[in-house]
């Protein structure tokens, strides 16, 4: 009796639309958050995640069935999905929220991704979730870990190298820790969060951008997924840090101590 063929891998890559990393961040006049009327782009860590998903398919060939990108955000987040499609994703899912709605918190995002994964079971399921270790707007760095906990899946955070064995349904992940590098062997399904040194994302070529316009984007709402993205934390006020003032040169230690006492840094 012949053994049944191994099931092909399905990869899901969550991405987020953020204020572009090159923009100068300013607090809005209402002091309710930062001014978002500036250039936006894909979160850089998520861009690395999309690139790594494409590289895994390039290494494994036809053992990878599909790469899907997913985002939870306003209507303009579709541009971010098109970028992921241009890099090499096959299809995308847009969980659309109103433009005026606050950005969902990590717990809400993780619950939405879990619901997306549950819906994908009809299409072969999800074997590997690759996502950025953090978003550069809130710097929370929690969504991947929460998702792994909700799904009861293996997790490997801050990955700097990923080697997937499709036959054994395993992955060796090298991750960056304070003491150096740590290698984990994980069983699929698996959640991986990417670090900066994992790869250097490719530029999307014009032909790829044109092809991306024909790739499908499925639109859903939080209600379709049965999740509530209402934030649990209320931001009362956002202010800029105090402006730095110029330093002063002193002639000797006694003058330095006197200046520190005047500033109230040391007791008089």
UniProtKB/TrEMBL annotation:
Cofactor entry: FAD; AMP
> Could you identify this protein by its name?
Probable electron transfer flavoprotein subunit beta
Which SUPFAM superfamilies has this protein been placed in?
A: Adenine nucleotide alpha hydrolases-like (SSF52402)
Q: Which residues form the Electron transfer flavoprotein alpha/beta-subunit N-terminal domain?
A: 32-229
Chief localization = mitochondrion
Sum up the protein's function in the record's words: The electron transfer flavoprotein serves as a specific electron acceptor for several dehydrogenases, including five acyl-CoA dehydrogenases, glutaryl-CoA and sarcosine dehydrogenase. It transfers the electrons to the main mitochondrial respiratory chain via ETF-ubiquinone oxidoreductase (ETF dehydrogenase).
Gene Ontology cellular-component terms for this entry are: mitochondrial matrix
Q: Name one GO molecular function term.
A: electron transfer activity
* CDD domains assigned to the protein according to its UniProt record, in alphabetical order: ETF_beta (cd01714)
Q: Which GO biological-process labels does this protein carry?
A: amino acid catabolic process; fatty acid beta-oxidation using acyl-CoA dehydrogenase
How does this polypeptide assemble, per the annotation?
A: Heterodimer of an alpha and a beta subunit.
Q: Which organism is it from?
A: Schizopora paradoxa
């Amino acid at each position: 009796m012949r053994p049944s063929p191994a099931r092909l891998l399905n990869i899901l890559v969550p991405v987020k639309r953020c204020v572009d990393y090159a923009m100068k961040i300013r607090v809005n006049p209402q002091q309710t958050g930062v001014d978002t009327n500036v250039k936006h782009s894909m979160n850089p860590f998520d861009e690395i995640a999309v690139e790594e998903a494409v590289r895994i398919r390039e290494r494994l060939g036809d053992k990878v069935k599909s790469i899907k990108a997913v985002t939870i955000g306003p209507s303009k987040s579709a541009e971010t999905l098109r970028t992921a499609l241009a890099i090499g994703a096959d299809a995308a899912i847009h969980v659309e929220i109103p433009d005026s709605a606050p950005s969902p918190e990590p717990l809400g995002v993780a619950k939405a991704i879990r619901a997306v994964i549950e819906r994908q079971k009809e299409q072969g399921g999800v074997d590997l979730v690759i996502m950025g270790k953090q978003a550069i707007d809130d710097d929370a760095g929690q969504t991947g870990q929460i998702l792994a906990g909700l799904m009861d899946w293996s997790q490997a955070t801050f990955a700097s190298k990923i080697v997937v064995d499709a036959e054994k349904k395993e992955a060796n992940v090298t991750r960056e820790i304070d003491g150096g590098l740590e290698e984990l062997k994980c069983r699929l399904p698996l959640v991986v969060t990417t670090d900066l040194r994992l790869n250097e994302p490719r530029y999307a070529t014009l032909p790829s951008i044109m092809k991306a316009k024909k790739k499908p984007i499925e639109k859903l709402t939080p209600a379709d997924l049965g999740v509530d993205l209402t934030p649990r934390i209320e931001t009362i006020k956002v202010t800029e840090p105090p402006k730095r003032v110029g330093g002063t040169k002193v002639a000797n230690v006694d003058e330095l101590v006197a200046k520190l006492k005047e500033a109230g840094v040391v007791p008089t």
